[in-house]
Amino acid sequence: MNSGNQTTLSTANLSFLRLLPEVRTVEVLLAFSIFLTIHSLRQRKREGLAMWPVVGMLPSLLLGLRHDMYEWITHVLEERGGTFTFRGPWMTNLHCVVTADPRNLEHLLKTKFANFPKGDYFRSTMKDLLGDGIFSADDDTWRTQRKAASLEFHSAEFRSMTVRSLIELVHSRLLPVLDSAHKTNEAIDLQDVLLRLTFDNVCMIAFGIDPGCLQLGLPKIPFAKAFEDATEATTIRFVTPTAIWKALRAVDLGSERSLKRSLKQVDEFAYEVIETRKKEIESNARDNARPDLLTVFMKQKDEGGAAFSDKFLRDICVNFILAGRDTSSVALAWFFWLLNKNPEVEDKIVEEIKMILEGRDKTTNGDEELVFKPEEVKKMEYLQAALSEALRLYPSVPVDHKEVVEDEVFPDGTVLKKGTKVIYAIYAMGRMESIWGPDCRDYKPERWLRDGRFMSESAYKFTAFNGGPRLCLGKDFAYYQMKFAAASILHRYHVKVVDNHPVAPKMALTMYMKHGLKVTLTRRDEAPKINLVVNS
To answer: pTM of the full predicted structure?
Structure first.
């Protein structure tokens, strides 16, 4: 009996000894995991994000992508006092400094402008979409486009043409489309309608063509969808290691496959516009003096004295479509969504419009359709404040990119080595208490008013239109376009967002609403109606 027990014990001991290396391995792995976790959490306290071996801060970034990337960036910046360094996986270029500090923005956008170009990384990432256009270009290529566009934007003829085209589009197309939706009591995607408005507008003033995107029935425009898909796929490159997206491009898979197909449609549209315009110029089929930007660039020469290539003209077209189509339309979409949540602001805008109209010449025929005059649009100070407040909270371009040419130090003390990528977070800036105060997340147009007059903020505090030498050339026109369209709608309709309609930003170059903006329209009570006819 004892002998049997001893044999059993000996066997058990032997089995335990055999298991001992495996137990030790598990213990070592567990201890190592605990060490990594503690180390990463310590790094989080020091760096702002958990720092893991090999993959760096990538897990935190992926978590941010699952929810709301822009809010995630805002949260990290708030914790880090306005600036933090993101460290990506080893052997990748996902390393950058992210900032929302106005002092740093003034430093990189103005004071040391030459030391912070867009840079090779941005250009190579955006090249398939934007090419050598003004948004991604640097140095002489950028200066050439900037100078030509600036001269055109500031000419009296160009300004007059933009006013005429906007009146035509709003009254001949936008309002009839909205009236049709009102009569049928159907919900309409206002973001889509506004994108159509601004697309037709930019094509008319920049290329001298009318694509007819905004019409009754809202016809499908393949280019518009392709352009939006291309910007989204291009944005994905910025959160993907370069080697990976280039590999996907080489084998035509994933988002790169989508980008390739979308760009094919974008290119077809751009080259067709260029070819049509060239034929018109050659045949004198139209007034060649018409001030559209494409004609201006077609008549210029490059440094070698030759005409610009079709590829370069294509890049110009795509860049100005991005500037003129997406920015104003998505800003207006967020504006109307904010009005739905803040009806008291809408009431004040409508009241301001009524007061301005009361000052009209009483000999005007009251039966004519009301068209706002440029001087009336200029007087809409509260409306401009409400639009600026919407842009503060939902900037059309939520983040932008620079690269450091030579070693530099930001005013907040952040050390920047040559080649460092810098991201300035425009969306986050609108939500920083250090910049806008404890009510920074509230929608308050009054913060833009001084004694009832609109007062602009520093371009390095309110960066929706960029700043320094790259300040948006179309800023004044964008405000006029948004004010004219918004006032024309609000004077006639109350816009109500459909109940339970999901609203969230889409990750793209511009801040599209991911699910559009479904709304219904109600005609405003016109009584008491302003009598614009003098009784004899």
So the answer is: 0.84
Burial label, 450 (beta-carbon count in 10 A; 0-12, 13-18, 19+): exposed
According to the per-residue pLDDT averaged within each range, which of 39-43, 60-64, 342-346 is highest?
342-346
Helices 254-283 and 310-321 pack at an angle, to 10 degrees, of 110
| Whether 302 contacts 310, CB under 8 Å | no
Rg (CA), the chain: 28
Task: Report the pLDDT averaged over residues 52-64.
Answer: 68
Task: Evaluate whether 509 touches 397 at the Cβ level (below 8 Å).
Answer: yes
Q: How far apart are CA 323 and CA 330, in angstroms?
A: 11
What per-residue confidence (pLDDT) applies to 265?
A: 93
Residues 6+ apart with CB under 8 A from 387: 331, 332, 335, 479, 482, 483, 486
Three-class SS of 85-106 = EEECCCCCCCEEEEECCHHHHH
CATH 3.40.190.10 at 92-523, yes or no: no
172 Cα distance to chain centroid: 28
Question: Could you report the per-residue pLDDT of 441-466, keeping only the tens digit for each?
Answer: 999 999 999 988 999 999 999 999 99
Q: Domain boundaries in the chain?
A: 92-523
Rounded to whole angstroms, the Cα distance separating 237 from 346 reads 39
Average pLDDT over residues 397-420: 94
Instruction: Write down the mean pLDDT value for the chain.
Output: 84
Question: Which residue, among 512, 298, 504, has the nearest Cα to 396 in the 3D structure?
Answer: 512
Rounded CA separation 101/435 (Å):
8
